[in-house]
C-alpha cells in the first residue's frame, strides 16, 4: 500500500536522492534538516511504496489522521520492521493564515499515476487542519502540467517572480487558492478527493480492503 507520513531527520538523505532525480536545482540536505527543526511552522511529508511489505504481511492496521485516515486502502499504517522506499515528498510553510507550498516531487519511475496530486491533496488537508485560510505557491511559467493541476484546485495566477529559478533564470508564476474557509470551495475539494481516490484505486493497481 502507499503511505504518507511526516518526514523525519532519518528520511532526509533518501529524500535528497529522490529530489536529485526530480529537479535540476534540488535543495541541499542542510535545508531539509533546518526545516524539520520547526514543525510548528513547517510541514513535510514523504510518500512510501509499502505495497511489497503489505503483501508480505508486514503492514500494521494503523491509520493516519484526516485525509490519510479516510483513504485507509491507501495508507495501511507503518511497517513495524524496516522502511518502505520513499517515492515522493512534499512540504509547506504555515505562517498565520497562509500556507506556502515549498516543494512537491515524485520519483520519475512513478509519475503519471496521480501520486503528485495525492501529495498535493495531503498538503491541502494539513493546511486546513492548521486553520490556514489560503494556500500559495510558485510554479515555473513553462510547467503547464503543474499549473493545470493547481487550476483544477481553484488556484489562480496573482503575480510573477522574474528569474526565480536559479538553474535557468526562469520566471515563476505566483498562484493562490480560493479561501479554505469558503463552504462552496470545500465542497469542490471534497469532490476532487473522491476523484483522486477513484483514480488511484482503479488505475494504479492498488488493492482495496475486502
Task: Describe what is shown at a glance.
With 210 residues, this protein is an alpha+beta fold. It has helices spanning 12-22, 29-36, 51-55, 66-70, 115-129, 144-152, 183-203, and strands spanning 2-6, 42-49, 86-95, 98-106, 134-140, 156-161, 172-176. It has seven helices and seven strands.
Describe the structure.
- The structure is a single chain.
- Mean pLDDT is 84; it is low at 58-81 and 204-210.
- This protein has helices at 12-22, 29-36, 51-55, 66-70, 115-129, 144-152, 183-203; strands at residues 2-6, 42-49, 86-95, 98-106, 134-140, 156-161, 172-176.
- β4, α5 and β5 form a beta-alpha-beta unit.
- The chain is an alpha+beta fold and 210 residues long.
- It has a single domain (2-133, 179-203), classed as 3-Layer(aba) Sandwich (Aminopeptidase).
- It has a 7-stranded mixed beta sheet, sandwiched between helices.
- The relative contact order is 0.15.
How is this fold's topology laid out?
Blueprint: E1 2-6, H1 12-22, H2 29-36, E2 42-49, H3 51-55, H4 66-70, E3 86-95, E4 98-106, H5 115-129, E5 134-140, H6 144-152, E6 156-161, E7 172-176, H7 183-203
Parallel strand pairs: 4-5
Antiparallel strand pairs: 1-2, 2-3, 3-4, 5-7, 6-7
Mean pLDDT over the residues: 84
Distance between the termini: 14 Å
Mind telling me the C-alpha Rg? 17 Å
Give the number of domains.
1
CATH 4th-level superfamily:
Gcn5-related N-acetyltransferase (GNAT)
| CATH topology group | Aminopeptidase
- Molecular shape: globular
- Which class in CATH terms? Alpha Beta
Oligomeric form: single chain
Into which percentage range does the β-strand content fall?
15-25%
Sketch the major β-sheet. 7 strands, mixed
CATH architecture: 3-Layer(aba) Sandwich
Q: Detail the poorly predicted runs.
A: 58-81, 204-210
What letter string, H or E per element, gives the SSE order? EHHEHHEEHEHEEH
Strand order of the largest sheet: 1-2-3-4-5-7-6
Number of strands: 7
Helical content class:
25-40%
SS content category = alpha+beta
Tell me the number of helical segments per DSSP (H or I, 4 or more residues long).
7
